[in-house]
Amino acid sequence: MRAQDRTPVVKKIKPGISTLALTPDKASDYLQPLLSFAAAHIPKKKHRETPLYILCTAGMRLLPESQQAAILEDLVTDVPAEFDFLFSSSHAEVISGKQEGVYAWIGINFVLGRFDHAEEGEEAVVEVTTGGQNQEPISRRRTVGIIDMGGASLQIAYEVPSAISFSSPEQEEAAKSLLAEFNLGCDVEHTQHVYRVYVTTFLGFGGNMARQRYEDDLINNTLTKNRLTGEQMGMGEATPYLDPCLPRGLSETVQRDGHRVFLRGQGDWPRCQGAVRPFLGQPNGTVSLRGVYQAPINFHNSEFYGFSEFYYCTEDVLRIGGQYDSFKYSKAATDYCATEWTTLKQRLDSKLYSTQADLSRLKYQCFKSAWMYEVLHSGFRFPQDYPSLKTAQLVYDKEVQWTLGAMLFKTRFMPLRDRQQEAFRQSHSSWLRVSFVYNHYLFFACILVVLLAILLYILRLRRIHQRELRQAEALDLLWAEEGEVLIA
After folding, report:
1. Pairing of strands 145-149, 153-159
2. Quick one: which residues bind ATP (predicted)?
3. 383, exposed or middle or buried, with CB in 10 Å at 0-12, 13-18, 19+?
4. Which residues, including other chains, have CB under 8 Å from residue 212's CB and lie 6 or more apart?
5. CA atoms within a 13 Å half-sphere pointing along the CA-CB vector of 196
6. Which CATH class name applies to 99-205+276-337+372-417?
């Protein structure tokens, strides 16, 4: 949907609704600008039949259940009093990270048309085994996976087309909470649109939270080492801690719990990679992030999109967003980190970076680029020569948000059918509409003819009746005249 100036009809407000934890009675007021915006773009006569869903994510998930319930209660009570949308208590909820990941996955694949049926001879297809017994594998269009790294959390979601074998009952149990199977078709019995998706969220693995964890560890280790050795590393500007993850020559100060450590950027990207790797949380030799079960990925027949930090890290200052090339990315990141801080600021002032780049991006680009790289290749184990990852902010000039996927899922009995069948149905539907309109008018024409016939018949009866009255009057007059003659 686009406005008159052809811009997408989208509205966002900040901060999140979770900031009203202590004043839940203001929740509906907070949403008022969003709902008014929606109401202005939907014909008023359609409001009563337009479903409204209010879905809350990570910020609300962090609140106690009592505070969540108070906010939702205010929305359920006050929103219907001001807006006529189709809305009930079941339409307002706090969704899980798993749901959010599934919705994001649905949104991107819908925009890319990956739910359409595969055409003859198409290469990007997969063989899918569904949950039904004695069913042959289905060949259908290959969907894309997504990796989304925000400031606080990291999410990954992708289809698992084949049946999974588990190494132990414990692993199978752990996988159940990370696999979602759902039907996006119109018929719940039809398996053509059954999708099995692996989705998980890693809280604390976003770019900003990862840097915070890194700094916490840096301060603790520095203070501990100083106590053991008697050194004063990082305790003053003259003896700064050399941080490999800050650009060369950048001076920075970090504080935690009353302790302060002075940092000086070393700009050594390979060393920074080694420094951030322990924060992936791969204990006891496990090869997955935080030891969490990861469903297998067919790297020879798959495609992924990287959003948020994956795009910012490749595009904002390195200017190589889009098709991801790990070797090209490594070289660009290495060169950036090794560049003097004064030079980087001059380039920012000269507008050589994207419009989104600012001083914060310049400061932490070196760290975040290393973190992104390690998450992708050491955490998720993507091969360095993996050719099918694209970093993006827009897809087909559309902002792909989890909210789009949520709407599609909530109305999932939508027609995800073969294009030819759909085209036939559309033309058939069009013919039906024309036929209905034609019959509609024909019916009224018949009614009109009948009414005219009745009216003419009534008029004719009136004329006959009036003629008979005149004849009767004439006859009475005649009898009267004759009587007068007889009396005379």
Report:
1. antiparallel
2. 151-155
3. exposed
4. none
5. 21
6. alpha beta
pTM for this model (two decimals): 0.76
- Pinpoint the alpha helices (H) of 230-358: 269-276, 309-315, 326-338, 341-349
CATH architecture for residues 17-94: 2-Layer Sandwich (3.30)
Widest pairwise Cα distance in the chain: 160
100 catalytic per annotation? yes
pLDDT single digits (tens) 364-405 = 999 999 999 999 999 999 999 999 999 998 888 777 888 889
Tokens at residue 101, please? Answer: 């990941």
Point out the catalytic residue in the list 100, 159, 215, 374.
100
Residues belonging to the binding site for ATP are 151-155
What are 126-171's pLDDT values in tens digits?
Answer: 888 866 556 678 888 999 999 999 888 899 999 998 888 888 888 8
Contact yes or no for 403/336 (Cβ under 8 A): no
- Rounded CA-CA distance 134/191 in Å is 13
Known binding positions: 151-155
My answer on whether omega of the bond before 8 falls inside 30° of 0, hence cis, is: no
